Amino acid sequence: xLKYAAKKLLASLPVLLGVSLLVFLIMHLTxxxxxxxxxxxxxxxESVQVLRTKLGLDQPLPVQYARxxxxxxxxxxxxxxxxxxxxxxxxxxxxxFTMELAVVSLVISVVLGIGAGVIAAVKKGxxxxxxxxxxxxxxxxxxxxxxxLMLMMLFSYYLRWLPASGRGGPLWTLAGWKTILLPAxxxxxxxxxxxxxxxxxxxxxxxxxxxxxxxxxKGLPERVVIFRHALSNAMIPVVTIVGLHLGFLLGGxxxxxxxxxxxxxxxxxxxxxxxxxxxxVQAAVLMIALSFVLINxxxxxxxxxxxxxxxxx
Amino acid sequence: MNxxxxxxxxxxxxxxxxxxxxFVAAGCSGGGQPSGNGGGTxxxxxxxxxxxxxxxxxxxxxxxxxxxxxxxxxxxxxxQVMEALVKRDKDGNIxxxxxEKWSAxxxxxxxxxxxxxxxxxxxxxxxxxxxxxxxxDRILTDKAAPTRFRKQWSDVIKDVKVVDPxxxxxxxxxxxxxxxxxxxxxNAGMIASKANFEKLGAKEAxxxxxxxxxxxxxxxxxxQKVVLEANKEYWGEKPKLxxxxxxxxxxxxxxxxxxxxxxxxxxTKLGQExxxxxxxxxxxRVETVAAYQVRFLNLNVSRAPFNDLKVxxxxxxxxxxxxxxxxxxxxxxxxxxxxxxxxxxxGAPKAGEIPTYKADLSKAKALLAEAGYTAGADGKLAKDxxxxxxxLYSPNGRYFMDKEICEVVKNQLTQLGIQVDLxxxxxxxxxxxxxxxxxxxxxxxxxxxxxxxxIFFDPLVKTGxxxxxxxxxxxxxxxxxxxxxxxxxxxxxxxxxxxxxKRVADNAWYVPLYxxxxxxxxxxxxxxxxxxxxxxDFGSLYLEGKGN
Lengths: 313, 548
Hints:
heterodimer, A: mainly alpha, MetI-like fold, 2 domains, globular, B: alpha+beta, D-Maltodextrin-Binding Protein, domain 2, Dipeptide-binding Protein, domain 1, Dipeptide-binding Protein, domain 3, 7-stranded mixed sheet, 4-stranded mixed sheet, 22 strands, disordered N terminus
């Protein structure tokens, strides 16, 4: 298993290199001069040129990319063009908050999604099933920022139960939970809906299989049939979706973070793209890509836990 | 059977794993994050009744080395911690700050500042002429220092000399009546502690600033808040608040909800609909005031079709800008006579003092006919077989209602038979395009923190001015503008600027749109703040009653 993990990790190196090249090219080929943006519309051209030289932006692209890779190999993510502070420090202090939000919304979406999926599958064709699936459809379709604003209106403005924005503290404090709930729900509802639909269809498929009929014929209680026999067999596609969604939640938190003034990298990346702050955008995308790769690796490992027939050779 | 039992418990195991992951993530992010007290919790009744005010900033601060502050949020925070030699009072006049008094030599070439004595930086070090010279030299010559303000300062200043510990002499390259406005009151003019800089180094000092201002820098939690605390030893009126916290909240909807629920006391990002709604809320006060910010359509006179005065005048007559602005921007804009000078400036022309182009379609059509444009069978205008077609560039949301205004402009001109190629762009590529002069017409704005007319006229309309993207040139006008910064008598300067504003209007280089207003909404319990175009001074803020 360790050998498998090492092999997978090694294979992900070209992926990361590709991502770094792609982001580098997209950022550098998009029109818009960072020096001009930093100095603003009232800067004179002389000052802009001085800054371009200072930032190394007057060098040919291959030279800039080679320098970037060289620094990366030494673990140096560069210096933010806008703030002149090390990118590792800027993103490092924010990344855990993005991760925290993504993981809490994943937990919420897994609990809601699997719960709703099971109910819908077990009560197939009932009003509960239809209602759950319609809600899931709305959940998939509604943009997270809109859900976020609606939640904020309801829970912060009308009911005054929860604070509207910001991060109150770590998760083991009440203030921390109070502030993370709304953004986590707003972010997680879409994933919950997908997980619910996936759980429902996968479970329905399993429930039609012979071993379920056997289990029922043995007189096992329905609860045991569903949870012990059917659900665990229906989990593989769900685990894949859950793993992928953690990646999506990491990347997708950008807008929700903005709405809830959540101090993660999302807000940072939005500002950095607007300012053409290449080093910050490149590093952030690389961090998210790396997380994605690691999450996929973890998902692969989880397959083995869920289904012992899967072997890592 | 055994195998299925194993499966069953695995579902639980995966769930438990996810929960554990959540707590691991929480553990990663928990270190050193303070909780509560308005910093991040917001919400109803959570702002302490003590004197702790929370201000919403539109983004997080970038850094606080005065030499490299180019964004509003950082400038706002830095301005509470650090001070310049002079400052602007609520009416926009320059008054004493770290300099008690100052004077210019008869030839206008040397300015001498008498510095305030017994002023200490928050780190206990002395404020004196040496520190000021050190900082000014950093701006002017230090190779390792940020260059953001270097040209602006070194175009004006020749050198800086310490006369005695509390007297500073600044020699200028040429007399400049707007010296204090143009140089000393810029962000770079805020004096930081030299001792702190030497102790921490440039990078760290930029995140832990030490100044002489009414508030001391306490902490900056990236993305969450900047906390300042009262400087009990402040040389001026002592602050009444215990702490002043700035929270970055990017969304205007979120800012408004935080204000209404008492999570913050003061916000500056709100749209027209929010203004109208908040005016009905008795717990909230909404104020708008004309800012030193002008908005206009910039015409490029270096190429056809706007190299023709008649065409520029025709466009001005063709557009009903007053109606466009009042319907789209409403209370958030004040219609302006001049495209260039903000109405809050002492140099702003009064109604009727300069020619304005009132919407008049028949005049527009007549001028276009004089310029040689005739309508074809399809109603589209053309000259010498070439259609009247031009590009209009607009940023997307950089200026209030920019894109929407441009859409109406396009619509009104299309009805006249003019083909407008409207290009709405993101700010960075837009800026690149406009600065290269690669446009026919562009929606632009000019924001300054000073009302001095030179700061608007010189860059925007002087030949080669740094904001003169339309390539305007008028030698006589240049002469007036040069003279206007040499004379010190404000009445004479005003006359010159009036002549200049009139000439700009005669040349029809712009289509004036509106003067942007500065909006603020605050809890009614927040007192001691005067909302004017000039700066934002939170030094005398205090909270009344329960505080939220």
